Amino acid sequence: MEWQRLIVSYIVGFVLLNVLLGLMAYMTWFERRVLARMQHRVGPNRTGPFGLLQPIADGIKLLAKEDIVPANADRLVFLVAPLLSFALAPLGAAVIPFGDTLHLFGIDIPLLVADINVAVLYVLALGSVGVYGIILGGYASGNRYSLLGALRSTAQVISYELVLGLSLVGVLILSGSLSLQDILREQQRSLVLGPLTLPNWYILSQPLAFALFLIAAVAETNRAPFDLPEAETELVAGYFTEYSGFRFSFYFLAEYINMIVVSLLAATLFLGGIDGPIADGVWWLAIKALFFLFFYVWLRATLPRFRYDQLMGLAWKVLLPLALLNIALTGLVRLWGIGAL
Amino acid sequence: MTVQVLVFWLLALVAILGALGVVAARNPIHSAIGLVLSFLNVAAIYLIARAEFLAVVQVIVYAGAVIVLVVFVTMLVHPDDLPEFHGRRPLRIATGLVLGLALLAEVSAAILAHGLRGTPGPWTDDTIAAVGGNTRALGQVLYSDFMLAIQLTALLLLAATIGAIALARPEAVSERLAAARRVMTISLAHPRGLDQPALPAALPEPQNGRVKEAGGGRPIVLARTADEFTEQPAWGEWRAR
Fold first, then answer.
1. For A21-38, what is each residue's pLDDT tens digit?
2. Of A182, A259, B38, B215, which is most buried by a Cβ count within 10 Å?
3. A113 Cβ partners below 8 Å, 6+ apart?
4. Boundaries of every domain in chain A
5. Is B37 touching A (CB cutoff 8 A)?
């Protein structure tokens, strides 16, 4: 039944969206607590046990703030841009498989919102459209700091998107498919290396691609040490300088949702996703994604921000050649593997 | 089928409205937004035609890269320096009109000669399924039948890349080395490059200056835990005031 499957996938999508929003709220709490621990501070601990109610308090506070539109602003674009950023962020999670089918009420429920046969490209496309929220927000504010932040962000996202896409080509060559489900199925096989039997996770066969993906993903989500679009020492707050209240928080939330989606994607593409040593399931994906989220916070606490020319030099002179090298090597190995060389 | 047709008309309508917006908008950024809207709707029409790969590539290349670059360049230019968008340029309007009519005539001639449906090629649903999906089929066709075109396109893009690098490259070798050193230096302490003169060994003494005395009136608070520092009680804790 076509319509029944459609309704089921809508329901799965709705549940996923709400889980993501809840996770995103607690990601802010997690980041503040972990960051505080790393900096010998206490962090939020007044609202609720261990400060657990802090995200809710923050949300209420932001809702109660005044929504200011600057006199110089391009009004309609200014109002819509943060919504664009926020609406596009959770869509990437729609193609990530969270497990096999679930039998409930006599219906098979696939734990995946949409099985697209070009899922990897779909995620990249979302990333490339997501930059519009930043550019338009920065442009529409009618403020030089915002404009500069938006310009930096555009250059950064275009450069690192290239690295991100090219770093995935190695994985695509090995799996021979653009579908995340096929990539996952390929990783569930085991890899025999002499006496060792390892899972066929792509982090083992594509370590360079994994490193490049990780670096590019941090830059793509505008996180430290690549948070130049919002470098507060130079640009006040970059592209969202003029935003206040809930429109400001839309940008903020989009950043956190992007982090979660990218972590899920990295876990699925390189660490075997739901595949684990015992009892495959969504919990393995959660553990792996949590590791990446911790890594994000860890990076922020450890590294100083890059200078702008270093950022662009790193992308074009170091990461891009490495990604191309990885593609060439993987292609050669693949050809040798199927006996064409 | 009827739902598909309805969705198609809706998408086509929005795509055309977006294209009209490109021409009608007075602000170049608004034009770019209209163009993105149009591209996205065309991508959705590709999706209805079950060309997922084409749809996603349309979004990545046109909406994601080309228009982003257009917006980027437009934002770098000051609004006052932009050419007049409408009016007072009769020659330009006439040229645009002639070129537009020529394009319209070409497209209409193509449609009238071959019909709107076109002639079906050798690929049917069954042959595509036999190869394993339309992405795979597209790849096979592109890299076997159209190999020459692909190679030529790649050559053209490579030439463009080399041209861009040649344009951006400094002329003198010393400048190139200095630029490379600047990029590769990560200064941890002070934002000075390596190519600047050294600081003097000793800073000059302040003239008739007075060094401010250390110390101040504010007491230093030493707190072991947050509770010693703040008056506000922690969760679930009642403190006598």
1. 888 888 888 888 888 888
2. A259
3. A9, A12, A13, A16, A93, A94, A95
4. 68-98+114-337
5. no
